[in-house]
Design goal:
CATH class of one domain in chain B: Alpha Beta
Structural class of chain A: mainly alpha
Structural class of chain B: alpha+beta
Helix content of chain B: 25-40%
Distance between the termini of chain A: 33 Å
Number of strands of chain A: 6
Strand order of the largest sheet of chain B: 3-2-1-6-11-12
Number of strands of chain B: 15
Largest sheet of chain A: 2 strands, antiparallel
Oligomer: heterodimer
Shape of chain A: globular
Largest interface: A-B, 51 and 35 residues
Number of helices of chain A: 15
Strand content of chain B: 5-15%
CATH topology of one domain in chain B: Beta-lactamase
Helix content of chain A: 55-70%
Radius of gyration of chain A: 23 Å
CATH superfamily of one domain in chain B: DD-peptidase/beta-lactamase superfamily
Chain lengths: 446, 501
């Protein structure tokens, strides 16, 4: 399966060369070979440290990452080295090498996760530590001056010299662990106490505390970092995990209402958020101004039509930021509806494998953690692909595995590491009972 | 907890299903609509990468390419080129980054190769590695007639705005479509942004409106040419039996509201009670004014519709509607008198003028005017081909058409006829017969403006054959229809017949 994914990436790479210059790129595709080695390393590490893990997760992630690297290579070459097209703004000449490097770092992080965390439960010990770390990571960009944190209107970065990271990507993982730990501890209280009203179980007012705190935190992100996407992911993840822990629909309802209310408030307060709504509703009215980017994305996707223009033969370079937030529009344009649907289905499969692991695993902490993480992966794809294709208002979040950028990629690989770890526990055999005259018996945790 | 996880799984499934539906909507369902959005930079850029189809004038025995895309030396980009510059500009229009007009606009998807009719061809081209190419559009235009029309308009109108349309009456094929002043479409195909911008601005701001195709977009009062419609209504309703029937032609005519209507130069029309044919070739306003009052406005409007007015023209280019509007007071008989002589609020295009003559020439049957004869794939297989058809709900009886033809014949052949000198035997010799009707529409406050000159005419079919050509001309502010407009039509007819003898 992994080989399959790698072969697809290599073929796509050759296809880019064909599309741009009419020949297979000369010279060794060093970047891709490094990538392939990293993926094989990940495979061996999984064999060694998580032998029972779901065998589909790594190939799916590798396929997405490989396609992302190929597309970044294609965009990097656009308008350079005698290739047709225009140069993509804000894109360096070695974007591909950097992306491959981040993929390698991501694989190292994945291996580290597998080695250090022998069982998901280990993380439960660090519930509050990780919670604190998550909040701090989330808050740093808001506290830094704009010059060190703002890019294109969203204040979500930590920029030091030439390096920049998006701490929110990692904060999301840390907070997922925190939520899982906290909710496992408190779920009985949260799910049992309360009153019934209109057929819905309402929680006690004081139990609303954590929800309100999460809501307030995401609102603060919205206001200080003008980043609706991250806020939606963060809040969505929390609400879903709360629902998973308590199984009470009222939490979902309360969560959705609070989110809509919060967005409404911020839309009134922040012109940036309001603008996104206006552009979503009438993109073509602002086609030469604030709607330029979404209009280019839509026209690009439409230009690709059913089968796409072929890699290297479209004009994705017209869309600003096509290498990061808008990379799906480049796939839509060059691989067509067929290619984009295939990519969405690969994402869907990855989410499904995660949820399957959550279903199968016994440990409630792991269940909650992986359920929440899988959902947030689906939500992230929904938010960005939906935003780019005009289904929902556009919010700037990265496309997992595909977008250019190290933070998102490394965080995605860590997420995959956690999925693999939990699927390994879920599918592995129960520890062998020690057959010592029946004196000791391992009781499987229910 | 598993029940909740299953529910969340369903939510995830729903999100992916929504995304899949939406990308299908954008990339398949809406793709065509998005591709035709103005300013779609990809579709426009693509035009330079593929060869846009040619436009060919096929009205004569020898085909003439009037628009093509040529490879720019040393690049792999194509540029649109119009080999005859201004001559065919009203027909082709232009294809520029700022938009398309004319045939370049109406046939854009075929010329650009994006039409669904070309899907199969494009797919085969993709598989065989051939380059994508637009379809070739073949027009009915006769190069001989078009060049004569261009020359006549640009040299013989004393700088007045004018337009001419020539039709084949038995098919509706447009043989010539000229407008003056006009523009050189090559000025709008420059790949240099600054040059293009400068030319575009200049043409747009030019007060003489060179970009306007007056042949189908300028509407002027038809003047006395409308007497064709008034006479048809009179014959068809039985108010007047035949061309010899006398009608009342007082000088002056006192209108119901007390105002007076005078003939040109206040001359008496015949003996004051002439046969309608005499009133027609002398073009007496009082006779037809009075006839109009008897017929009433709704009847005139009905017969104007039978000549193709009061409906959006279906000709394959941008065109204005020729109308006899049901405006305020339009039923007032005093105003109907003016409607009947084409001087109230009826307004027509030069195309409509040609359609007046074509209806008579084709024995009362009005054929739908058209420009595109057929469309061919780059591999020269026919995608679509025009079948001539009458415009539904139009036309008059062949008897009435015969009467009108007799009367139009006298306009050019009776020495007292208004166009005897300019379109009759003195101008055409004895071998060529042209039947026509002049119009001189007064306008401006109290008729102080320059008169618009109008002429509509046709060459009748010989020995029961079909008429080869009908022409409508309008010269804005040109003066007398017989003097300013008729010679233009004669020049085009002579050139066309010479090329088809």
């Amino acid at each position: 399966m992994l080989l399959f994914a790698l072969v697809i990436a290599f073929c796509a790479y050759a296809s880019v060369g064909f599309g741009l210059k009419g020949a297979v790129p000369s010279g060794l595709p060093v970047d891709l070979i490094v990538f392939a080695v990293a993926m094989l390393a990940a495979h061996l590490a999984i064999r060694r440290y998580a032998p029972y893990a779901d065998p589909l997760i790594l190939p799916l992630a590798a396929l997405l990452n490989g396609l992302g690297i190929v597309m970044i290579y294609r965009l990097q070459e656009s308008g350079r080295n005698g290739n047709p097209g225009l140069q993509v703004t804000d894109m360096g000449t070695s974007a591909t090498s950097f992306q491959v490097m981040y993929a390698a770092i991501g694989v190292l992080a994945l291996i580290a996760v597998l080695v250090l965390i022998s069982e998901a439960r280990v993380l439960q010990r660090y519930t509050y530590t990780l919670g604190a770390i998550g909040l701090v990571l989330l808050a740093i960009p808001a506290l830094l001056p704009d010059s060190m944190s703002a890019v294109n209107g969203a204040k979500v970065w930590i920029i030091v010299g030439r390096f920049s990271i998006q701490p929110g990507e990692f904060a999301r993982l840390a907070l997922a662990v925190f939520f899982a730990g906290y909710l496992v501890a408190k779920r009985d209280v949260l799910s049992l106490a309360g009153r019934r009203f209109l057929g819905i179980d309402l929680p006690r007012v004081r139990d609303l505390g954590p929800v309100l705190i999460a809501w307030a935190a995401s609102l603060l992100i919205l206001i200080f970092e003008t980043d609706v996407g991250t806020a939606a992911l963060f809040f969505g993840m929390f609400i879903v995990m709360l629902y998973l822990a308590t199984q009470r629909t009222s939490w979902l309802l309360i969560g959705v209402l609070l989110f809509l209310f919060g967005t409404f408030i911020t839309a009134q307060l922040s012109s940036h958020v309001m603008e996104r709504f206006t552009v979503w509703l009438h993109p073509f009215k602002y086609a030469t101004g604030i709607g330029y980017q979404p209009v280019q994305a839509l026209e690009g996707m439409a230009f690709g039509g059913l089968f796409g223009t072929g890699l290297g033969q479209g004009q994705p370079y017209h869309t600003p930021l096509v290498q990061s937030d808008f990379i799906v529009s480049a796939f839509g344009e060059e691989l067509g509806l067929v290619g984009l649907m295939a990519i969405l289905i690969v994402f869907g499969l990855l989410v499904q494998r995660g949820l399957r692991a959550a279903l199968a695993v016994k440990d409630p902490f792991a269940k909650l953690l992986v359920g929440g993480l899988s959902f947030v992966l689906a939500l992230q794809v929904f938010v960005i692909v939906g935003g780019v294709s005009g289904l929902i208002p556009l919010t700037g979040v990265t496309t997992p595995f595909l977008s250019e950028g190290g933070s998102s990629l490394v965080a995605s690989w860590i997420l995959v590491g956690l999925l693999i770890r939990v699927s390994d526990s879920a599918r592995g055999p129960a520890p062998q009972p020690i057959q010592d005259e029946g004196m000791t018996q391992v009781v499987r945790a229910a | 907890m598993n029940r909740a996880i299953l529910k969340i799984s369903l939510a995830c499934l729903a999100m992916f299903v929504l995304l899949l539906i939406n990308v299908n909507y954008v990339q398949a369902f809406e793709a065509g609509k998005l591709a035709s959005k103005p300013g779609n930079i990809r579709v426009f850029d693509q035009q330079f990468q593929y060869q846009r189809g040619s436009i060919i004038a096929t009205g004569d025995s020898k085909d003439v390419t009037i628009a093509e895309s040529r490879l720019i030396k040393g690049t792999d980009e194509y540029q649109r080129y119009y080999p005859y510059g201004k001559v065919y500009a009203p027909v082709t229009g232009y294809n520029s980054i700022y938009g398309n007009t004319g045939i370049e606009d109406t046939e854009n998807s075929l010329l650009a190769g994006t039409s669904s009719q070309l899907t199969v061809h494009n797919f085969t081209a993709l598989l065989t590695g051939k380059q994508k190419q637009g379809a070739t559009v073949e027009l009915t235009i006769s190069p001989a007639a078009q060049e004569a029309a261009y020359k006549a308009l640009s040299t013989s109108t004393n700088g007045h705005a004018a337009a001419l349309v020539a039709l084949n009456p038995s098919t509706g094929a447009i043989l010539a479509m000229a407008s003056y002043p006009t523009f050189n479409p090559n000025e709008l195909t420059s790949l240099n942004g600054t040059t293009l911008d400068r030319n575009d601005n200049r043409l747009l701001r030019d007060p003489s409106q060179p970009l306007l195709n007056r042949a189908t977009q300028m509407t002027l009062p038809p003047g006395s040419t409308f007497k064709i419609v008034t006479s048809s209504a009179a014959f068809s309703t039985g108010k007047v039996a035949n061309p010899s029937t006398t009608i009342s032609a007082p000088q002056p005519l006192t209108l119901p509201n007390g105002n007076l209507l005078n003939n040109d130069d206040d001359e008496l029309c015949g003996d004051g009670n002439p046969p309608i044919i005499e009133a027609f070739y002398l073009s007496c306003d009082t006779a037809f004014g009075k006839l109009g009052i008897r017929l009433t406005a709704p009847v005139l409007r009905k017969y104007s519709s039978l000549f193709g007015m009061n409906r959006p023209p279906s000709v394959q280019t941008q065109a204005a509607e020729s109308v006899l509007p049901e405006g305020k007071d339009w039923l007032d008989p005093s105003l109907t008198a003016f409607t009947a002589i084409g001087q109230y609020n009826d307004e027509v295009t030069p195309l409509q003028e040609a359609m007046f003559a074509a209806t008579i020439a084709n024995h009362g049957k009005l054929m739908e005017p058209y420009l595109v004869q057929q469309v061919l794939t780059p591999g020269l297989s026919v995608i679509s081909s025009h079948t001539p058809a009458a415009i539904p709900g139009t036309g008059i009886s062949s008897t009435v058409a015969g009467y009108i033809q007799q009367m139009m014949n006298q306009v050019t052949h009776n020495p007292a006829g208004t166009a005897y000198l300019t379109a009759g035997p003195p101008a055409t010799g004895n071998s060529l017969t042209i039947d026509g009707k002049t119009g001189t529409a007064q306008n401006g406050v109290n008729n102080t403006g320059l008169n618009d000159a109008v002429f509509t005419c046709f060459v009748p079919g010989t020995n029961g054959g079909s008429s080869p050509i009908a022409v409508g001309v309008m010269v804005q502010g040109g003066g007398y229809g017989a003097d300013a407009a008729a010679p233009l039509a004669v020049a085009v007819i002579k050139a066309y017949l010479a090329a088809h003898s």
